[in-house]
């Protein structure tokens, strides 16, 4: 590992919300590998006990990782006990319900931000709080239109307005809930930061990834709706047709950016866009055919095009280069899409 000055000492406790998630589990592993301890907040520790087994077991055996129950992330005081004594918080948890009523998704996401921030404000040991947002908070990433240039003040306000449109609620409301909840939650983060200013005793950063690819650590990470590579591998045209092009980033890269956003004392109040590679389905299908030449995949899409959007990811790449343990001087930051897809489909959880 690189020998770098960190904002918190090695051996400190990190509170990881939503610890059993695809991204969160990798963040946990990376902190553990660097000598930190992880307190994983999950809805049901019994269902998430795999975080104490397999690759996590050596750390569990020494007490470096533990699980705590936070069944309702939007409840007032939800993290008051879990946050005791931690040096940093990484808040990846989100409401997974895809339902039409915005009050069932957006409202608890915002109250969850308030809950974790209020708990951090009351806990003097906290030195850093990092929130996981989404590329969709800055842009709709819509195909066939010019999405413009993404900057610090870019917001996908249209999806928030669509989600809060008055009832009757239909499926269009439901589909807008995830990006809308991320927009609302991230705006709440910055609202609190602006209101409290220098009174905050900890750094606050936000990391916004696009579509995640790479190694799953549990079977449920393969079966999730957002596992886009698996949709292509299995020929799930309904899911593929809805997203002809996007940006894809390896989960380990995004995990490392979260770690850096906690540990790097020079990073504060950053809105880090971690989108990775622009790609359309034909490029992903070509990689899958190279990796699995014996398997039949769906036909290429006619007139496939990349998304029309301009994004500066200099900050994310700089953090990857600074905090990575890769010795290659020519390391350019992002894991290649092909290497990431290889790990996505080469695991014990993928069937057929």
Give the strand tally: 12
Strand order of the largest sheet: 3-2-1-4-5-7-10
Q: Largest sheet, described in full?
A: 7 strands, parallel
For the CA atoms, what is the radius of gyration? Answer: 20 Å
Q: How many angstroms does the end-to-end distance come to?
A: 37 Å
CATH first level: which class? Alpha Beta
Q: Which parts are unreliable, with pLDDT below 50 for 5 consecutive residues or more?
A: none
Helical amount among residues, as a percent range? 25-40%
Given the C-alpha coordinates, what overall shape results? Answer: globular
Mean pLDDT figure: 93
Helix/strand/pairing category: alpha/beta
Q: Write the element-wise H/E pattern from the N-terminal end onward.
A: EHEHEEHEEHHEEHHHEHEEHEHH
| Fold-level CATH name | Rossmann fold
Strand content: 15-25%
CATH architecture: 3-Layer(aba) Sandwich
Tally of structural domains: 1
Pfam families: 3Beta_HSD
Organism: Canariomyces notabilis
Protein name: Aldehyde reductase 2
GO molecular function: oxidoreductase activity, acting on the CH-OH group of donors, NAD or NADP as acceptor
What descriptors fit this protein?
Rossmann fold, 36% helix, globular, alpha/beta, 352 residues
Description:
By secondary structure, this protein is of the alpha/beta class. It has a single domain, classed as NAD(P)-binding Rossmann-like Domain (Rossmann fold, 3-Layer(aba) Sandwich), CATH 3.40.50.720. About 35% of the residues lie in helices and about 15% in strands. The chain has twelve helices and twelve strands. The strands form three sheets. A seven-stranded parallel β-sheet has the order 3-2-1-4-5-7-10, sandwiched between helices. Strands 8-9-11 form a three-stranded mixed β-sheet. Helix 2 links the parallel strand 2 (about 35-40) and strand 3. The two termini are about 35 Å apart.
